[in-house]
């Protein structure tokens, strides 16, 4: 199946022949759909926090977090190309001779973009780059000559926004400056990831081709934010490991080859980042997407609910660690087991079928279930955003239920019952997590041991006019964390403000 050149290529990526063959077997047998048992809802899988509890958990976090080693983990590798899909379309129309007025008349989004272009945070940079090229941005705008404005916004000869990652785009305007998402994450970090020695840690996962740009950008702004907040930032970057790439195959499940005969590999999706997460040594990790940021005047609620999630995790972790120490010391009686079994069922949402009531057989199982990474996941009310949601999922082998974040692609929508359950979901996962990656002895877990390998999925693509199949690894907050201890908590919708298209930057939450 593999030539000598193939073996060298696999070795260069750190992929064993066994792993490569395993990927091909996945294409051949496919991945099973998840079996939804029910949507997780308030009171049944999702916790609702009242004001008194909110205050208690925030204070618990503020009291205990300064002594801990905390990091904010931000997936930031994606290019912003899809943000500008509409702009590419409007530019094609302008190039073909359509007038901006006619495009605006037939497309409300175009009308708004043309009408409010000067209000975007990138406008000042665009004015400057055009000035360097001998062009007057204000005059072009006044004359409704939008083609050069869009060209210099998107293309490399100008700002090159079409190929930059979202983290380096100008998102928010302030009175005398503007900020990128990366800068907004620095500001957030200073407000809830600060250690007692005023060190603030952030870890961004970036693509190799953009790593230098990120490093340069941080270098140009970090001193300003350190002085502003009286902190010292420790900013790290990592890239998706080549060993997490997956082979593409043709429609007969044979390795897909490029024109030079080499194997074609594709990135394994955000699930590959479990390897990056696995290398962190901190006690507590906050995870949040790069584009989910707001200007300063809306940040306070974000801070409050980040501290809530952190406080909940520390409170839960403290209790779990105490139980594990008692079990390990032999100081764990029948009555302790009965109380802890109830705690595991009611607060860790472990299916009671897994834990027998008998002390002797139950304790070893209880210990194994408690001795796992913990994640607290914020959930917002579903307002129609695409993406994963919280569900009770049935284990194919054991017949027991667990709480999972499930994407639409994991569900068999041809099965009417499964489709109905999926559509009954009341909440949405905004990628708002806080995680504990160490056990009660301080040793880090090997996170790859808690991945459900059956939760990958196959997609259909093409290259050079030829159809191919691609494989994505279990998603970072889906199958990659399937066997963690999990708690879902309702958070306000204001804490979720993604930027999927450039028009989202005109929403009130980004003004």
Question: Keywords, please?
Answer:
three-stranded antiparallel beta sheet; alpha/beta; 511 residues; single chain
Describe the fold and architecture.
- Strands 2, 3, 4, 7, 8, 11, 12, 15, 16 and 19 form a ten-stranded mixed sheet that branches.
- Helix 11 links the parallel strand 7 (199-205) and strand 8.
- By secondary structure, the chain is of the alpha/beta class.
- It folds into two domains: 4-19 and 32-80 and 245-510, no CATH class; 81-163, no CATH class.
- It has helices at residues 4-13, 17-29, 51-64, 85-95, 100-106, 108-116, 123-132, 137-142, 146-154, 181-192, 211-229, 274-278, 299-329, 334-347, 359-370, 416-423, and strands at 35-39, 41-42, 45-47, 70-75, 172-173, 178-179, 199-205, 232-238, 246-247, 265-266, 284-288, 374-381, 389-394, 401-406, 427-428, 432-436, 457-463, 466-472, 485-490.
- Helix 14 (334-347) packs across helix 15 (359-370).
- The chain is globular.
- The longest helix has 31 residues, at 299-329.
- It contains 16 helices and 19 strands.
